[in-house]
Amino acid sequence: MEYQAFDPNVEIIGAAVKSFMNSLVGGDVISILKKYEIYPLEEDKWYNQQTVLNVYKKVAEKNYMNLVAIGMKIPDQAVWPPDLTDIHAALTSIGVAYSMNHRGGEIGEYLYEKTGECSGVMVCRNPYPSDFDYGLIYRVIQKFRGATSNTLLVKLDDSKPTRKNGADSCTYQLSW
């Protein structure tokens, strides 16, 4: 389910929260951060994930920025290994980065499976908004696909349970 931590003990590092907040435009984001007692935001401090999810939900309700667009900005703010050029490795690294930025219990996961030279499946089992994950995945593909094709598809697989319908994961079919 979106915006509901799997475990009340899970924490997220401030640097990851900051990248989300840096993606926002307009609105009084600082007042939201203050309301949830995460302002001033410290990059090396760990914050309760549920509190952060409450901030995300409030931002979505206030419509400060589309969550797809926010997800698309994250890969441009993240530090990537300089030798990471393969798109399949980049998609796999989403799960690695997620694990590095969360701690303290059942955090969930991103699981990528290559299904072809220019295709794959991503299962996002986490409490973040589905639209955010869509944007994140889309931009990672866009950033790392190279000149292989002009097409890019990230499609929520409606034949499987989705967070939009109360499940704890979403599955995306990917092609480029």
Brief summary of the model shown:
The protein is α+β, with helices and mostly antiparallel strands and 176 residues long. It contains 6 helices and 7 strands, in the order E-H-H-E-H-H-H-E-E-E-H-E-E.
Report on the structure:
- With 176 residues, the chain is of the alpha+beta class.
- It has 2 domains: 56 residues, no CATH class; 105 residues, H-NOX domain, CATH 3.90.1520.10.
- It has 6 helices and 7 strands.
- The strands form 2 sheets. The chain has a 4-stranded antiparallel β-sheet with strand order 4-5-7-6.
- Helix 4 packs across helix 6 and helix 5 crosses helix 6.
- It is globular and about 45 Å long.
- The mean pLDDT is 89.
| Coarse shape | globular
Order of helices and strands: EHHEHHHEEEHEE
Euclidean distance between termini CA atoms:
28 Å
- Poorly predicted segments: none
Task: Just name the CATH architecture of the largest domain.
Answer: Alpha-Beta Complex
Task: Give the secondary structure arrangement, pairings included.
Blueprint: E1 11-13, H1 14-22, H2 29-35, E2 46-48, H3 49-62, H4 67-77, H5 87-100, E3 102-103, E4 109-116, E5 119-125, H6 130-144, E6 153-156, E7 170-175
Antiparallel strand pairs: 1-2, 1-3, 4-5, 5-7, 6-7
Task: Write out key terms for the chains shown.
176 residues, four-stranded antiparallel sheet, alpha+beta, globular, H-NOX domain, 7 strands, 2 domains
